[in-house]
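Put briefly, the fold is written as integer tokens. One such record reads:
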Amino acid sequence: MRLSSGLAFVASPGGFRRSQPVRVPSVTGGLPGLAATNCALHDESLAQGIAAIDSAQSTLHPKLEQLRMLPYFRLYSCDLMASCEYIPQELFECYTESCEVYPVDDEDVPEDIKTADFDEHDFELDGWARWDMPSDDYYDTVQFSEDYTGYDGRDVWSFIHDRIGFHEGDMATDKYDADSWKADFNKAVSGLHAMVSAQVIRGINDKLAAGEQLDPESYPWTDPHAEYHRRLGSQGETPESVENMYFTMMLLLSGVRTARERLKEECTKGNIGDDEAVQTLQSILAHPLLDDPSIDAASHRLREHALQDRNNLWEARMRTRDLMRVMNCVQCNKCRFHGKISVLGISTALQLAVGHRGKGGDITKIHRVELASLLLAISKFSSGIDLCLQMQDGSMRT
């Protein structure tokens, strides 16, 4: 995987300009730098947004954990039997039972969710994502939550970064921070990878904390701290990974703010659930972080770049659809399930940020499953950031 050259682009009246890597004051009292890694920022325009997210974690993250318990945000009709169309594969049997997921009982799926998913599903030839055709099989993200299954998805990730990511032109030397929406796309995909890495690390730690013995034959990684430094550390394989995770988190937050009125309508219509469920969602929609202008840094950067090259945005939509379909190559069903939902959440944020012509998408065309995945993705990224902050301040204990 090629790494960024270390140059950044910062906001200026004429667009984004190069600057040297900068360090911002740690919001957790550690060494100067990005709080979650003590690493120099490559794009200083993200600094205030990162600080705002860190400051909001203690109040926002618990609300997002409550949101995950609501049927609207935890139930998805997903095709887990689809074939891989991108990579020649031998049949892989996951060696741990934690790889498997099973449909919930039909009576546990609210009828309004089924009806919405069937009625809203359509085919858009040039859409940002193409979610699976709805069926009677729904899966529960709480019953089958993120876990360390022992599955090694490096072949799929290599395909994503090498074949779906952009590498031509300036991206050949400045993969994440070149003056192009293509670099922004790479940055968002890297952020997705960083979030998944954080889930793996947390899963390793949780198993060890529960006293489980990790058999190296089934679990290739057994040291959460070593994996943190390898995957997410400032001297690791991708030093910019945590910064990219924050970048993607900002895109998601901006997407929720754009969708806020639509989500309030869902509350009014009774689609979210009872009064307690509505209150949980509304407490998130009213959180001060959503109105903090600093979180717009990522969407502003993406939109400005997109407007400079609007005729080629079809490439972003095509590759986002490919990113969704390549999840069918993941041979751990639990990993595939959560991967698809995460990609749908990110594609929804991209759609709302730039749409087809760089000016933003039509919120009235966003489906129930897209709204749900957008919020669930924020919860996943918030958990990933929380893991990194705990690793940095030493509060993560095995």
Confidence is low (pLDDT under 50) at residues 1-32. The longest helix spans residues 181-209. The longest strand covers residues 8-12. Residues 52 and 338 are 27 Å apart (CA to CA).
